[in-house]
Amino acid sequence: MKKNIVLTVCVSLLIFCVLTVCVSAAEADHNGANIENGGFSEGYLMNDGNERTYSTSWGESSVTVTRDDGLNSLYVVFDRLPPEWILTDLSNGDSVVCGNNTFLHEFVNVAELFGYAPVSVKLSFDTGVSIAEIYGFGAGELPGWVQIWEPILEEADLLMISSHSDDEQLFFAGVLPYYAGELGLRVQVAYVVNHFDTRMRPHEQLDGLWEVGVRNYPIIPKFPDLYSESYEGAVAAFGNYGYSFDDFCEYFTETIRRTKPLVIMTHDINGEYGHGTHILCTAALRECIEKTADAAYFPDSAVKYGVWDVEKVYLHLYGENQIVMDFDKPLEKFGGKTAFQVSQDGFKHHTSQHWTWFYKWIYGSGYKITKATEITTYSPIYYGLYRTTVGYDVVGGDFFENVKTYAVREAEEAARETEPAVTEAPTTEAPATVPYATDAPTTEAPETIPTDNPGDGTRLDPVIVIVGVVVFMAIILITSMILLKTPDKKRRHR
To answer: Does an H or E element contain 123, and which?
Structure first.
């Protein structure tokens, strides 16, 4: 009897282990491409599942990716912004140019480019390049962590100007998940500085944006990340690197003309906690915002993109014409999490900044923060309408009060084009417009408590999983053999 029980348990465990190995193997096979490098140091680091490691070439180089069942797509995580590169089908020599978007994380739809899924392709680089990861996928659904970035918007509903990578997840917590993720508006994020002096922050930046629903690649400028504790300190610090206040005004003017936003939102005039770059950011925007419609103001970008007059500008915590945002309502697109909670998830990707006071500020210390309203300093829910060409807010709680999004305008334009010609005199009554929905689900959002150690956002290596399962199987088998050899006391008594 005892032996039957032991055997049943062993068989059940073995079946479980085999299934686990099969699932792990299937996940590993999802990136089941063979990768060979030519001219890269430590090429195996391109396929270790860790964005923190990378392989570098110092001149002309190549990578060959082979998949026997056909290569439908590539996902290349560059460690530094790449040059243009050539993708070649090794079976027939057909080639296409890639990398013209200069995306740090680049998805390549190989089957779409060639019209078929080749078995083996070569990525060729004319100059030095660093690659953190390369994934080659066959047919089927892609994992959710694969970032398929869209180009920078030419017509943005909302332009968020964030000083640093992570400010958009902290002081503006809730904005991106709600407007980009839940409502699906055209949201463009533009930063004031870049973080290319560090290895991980550029990756954290993209991973965090993707987490909260942003799908258009961010605008990242030439200005370096310099710390200062005042406006004067920021001007002096950037001046030491050859940048003036006018350079920031020119950058914002070009960005506004390029993206043609309907609404802009950015930092507190006082820089939230007094960061000089935050203060400089808002000062430069206030300086140029009345002049972006003037072609004589920084004429080069006016020639390139045309002029633009934004309809509304909001500043964080601005005291006049203030509105209060509700970022504690459940969002359907994020499984019932609130916009604030999704931003908390976004900040989890910024592991290089978790040593700072920001970590306790957004997650809590001694208790877990789960609502935006629980943050009392530099609260992410208060904004003031700094400038408007469409009237002041009456209802409040929405950046787009009195503003029609581009999608609404396009739909109205399409409807006008399909309407039959009107022969009678037009009426003076204003056409009815559909108001924005203000009702939100009343179901209270389930509380999500972030872990004390959110992790670095890297994926678990399937090989480690398989090795662990094999060790577990061995322990079970050895234990079973010992149990089987133990005499059955009841049977011996009989």
So the answer is: strand 120-125
